[in-house]
Amino acid sequence: MDTPIAEAEDSAAAGMSYVLKEEAQLAQIWNAPDQTEHERAIQEITDRFSGARQRLEGIRACTDTAWERFITLTLERILSDHLREFLDEIGEEMQTVTQQMTEVDCEMDRIRARLHDRRRVLAEKTALLEQLAHRTSTQNHLGMMLARVEGLEAYLLGRKDVPPQSYELHYKRHTNAPGDLLYLRVRLLTTRIAIVAANRSRYLGELDAGLVESLLEVEHFKIDLATFTARIECMSEMTRYWLAYLDISAETDS
Asked: Which end of the chain has the smaller Cβ count within 10 Å, N or C?
């Protein structure tokens, strides 16, 4: 029949084995390669976003110029009988700008998908970390270790003024110092794993918050793009109107 000391040693040894597995698991959750991959992905997103902004500024300039010319010169071209040529010229410009806007819009959709993918990776890593951080209460671990240390200290020093819980853990079960030390080591390592996992989870939360801000920037970007799209569509509608007007006028004159 196993003695209490043997059972405690077996339990501590099993706990140590579990701790080693947890340490190995923690080492695989957001390690140096993960950090490097994330930084590379963020840099890629940043570069693509910067390129899209530059293209948007070019679209803004073309759209503003075309809109100004359309508003100020349409009546002049009507009076000079050069409206159709003018509308054809504006139409070609709008077609080019529309193509550019479509390409930029698609690029922003790809950037948004990339950001969502990075958030998915962070969420998966965070879920694993939270299992380690909240598997057991750090406060409970500290309480159990303190009781064990108090009892072990009292036993080694021959003190009798120990709390009842410590007495049960040491005097009553015939304390085995090596087993107690192993128990404390297991508890300390488990507590350290929980703290590291919690800190790492908090760090990933900060990274995720940065991704959320980037997603908001994407939405603001697409709002600006929609403004230019609406202006192009307005010119297209007015161009179709004036072309129809010219066709009707030509039929009437003939």
From this structure: N
Q: What is the pTM of this model?
A: 0.77
The answer for residues whose C-beta is within 8 angstroms of residue 128's C-beta and 6 or more apart is 25, 29
Higher pLDDT, 190 or 59: 59
- Looking at the structure of the chain, the number of domains it has is 1
Which residue in the block uniquely carries the two structure tokens 């503003």? 64
Contacts of 12 (CB under 8 A, 6+ apart): 179, 182, 183, 186
SS (H, E, C) 34-89: HHHHHHHHHHHHHHHHHHHHHHHHHHHHHHHHHHHHHHHHHHHHHHCCCHHHHHHH
Q: Look at the chain and count its residues.
A: 254
For residue 134, the SS3 value is coil
Of 206, 86, 92, 185, nearest to 141 by C-alpha is: 185
Among residues of the chain, what percentage have pLDDT more than 90? 44
Q: Which tokens belong to 163?
A: 């709390």
CB-based contacts of 225, cutoff 8 Å, min separation 6: 56, 59, 101, 104, 105, 108
Distant-in-sequence, close-in-space partners of 228: CB < 8 Å, separation ≥ 6: 59, 60, 63, 97, 101
Distances (CA, A) of 22 to 25, 186, 244: 5, 11, 75
In the predicted model, what is the mean pLDDT of the chain? Answer: 83
Domain extent for 221? 4-253
The residues, ordered by sequence, that sit 6+ positions from 173 with a Cβ below 8 Å of its Cβ are 4, 5, 8
